[in-house]
Amino acid sequence: MKALILSLMIIVGFAGVIEAKVQKKETARVQIHKTKQLRQSKIKVQFLELIEDSRCPTDTNCIWAGNAKIRVKLTKNGRTEITELDTMGDKKAVHFYGYSIMLTALTPEPASNIRIDRNGYVATFEAVKLSR
Q1: Are 53 and 85 spatial neighbours (Cβ–Cβ below 8 Å)?
Q2: Over the stretch 96-124, which tens digit does the pLDDT of each residue have?
Q3: For residue range 44-100, what is the model confidence (pLDDT) as tens digits?
Q4: DSSP secondary-structure letter at 35?
Q5: Torsion sign (Cα): 74, 102, 50, 28
Q6: Could you tell me if 72 and 121 are in contact, meaning their C-beta atoms sit under 8 angstroms apart?
Q7: How deeply is 58 buried, as exposed, middle or buried, from its count of CB atoms within 10 A (0-12, 13-18, 19+)?
Q8: How far apart are CA 85 and CA 52, in angstroms?
C-alpha cells in the first residue's frame, strides 16, 4: 500500500514538471526564385535555387529514393541565413530565429518520361517554434 501511495505521489509530482506543449505547425509553399513570409513567425523564406535532383522517378523502381537539394534564404528582423536543405539527405531542417524550418516536399516529382522545367519547382516548408 505504501508503494502504491509513493508511486502516485511521484506520478503527480512529475505531472507538474512534464508539460506536453502542442506546437502549431506553419506551412508555406514557395516557388523557385520567389519569397513567402510565414504568418506566425514572420520569417521570410526565399527558394533561391535547385542544387541537385537525383530523386527516383515515380514510374520506376529504384534501390535508393534519391535526394533533392535546394538553397534557401531565411530572413527576419534584418538577420539573414542562406542554407541548403535536402529532401532525404542529412539536412532536412535548420534552426533559425527560434524556429525549426524543415523542407517537407519538393514538387514536381521526377518521372522517366518527362523533363522538369527548372523554373517549375515548388518547395513546401514547415516551421515549428522551438521550446526552451
Answers
A1: no
A2: 999 999 999 999 999 888 888 889 999 99
A3: 999 999 999 999 998 999 898 899 999 999 999 999 999 999 999 889 999 999 999
A4: E
A5: negative
A6: no
A7: exposed
A8: 11
Count of positions (residues) in the chain: 132
Domains of the chain: 22-129 (2.60.98)
Residue type present at position 75? T
DSSP secondary structure of 59-114: TS--SS---EEEEEEEEETTEEEEEEEESSSS-SEEEETTEEEEEEEEESPP-TT-
Predicted TM-score (pTM) of this structure = 0.79
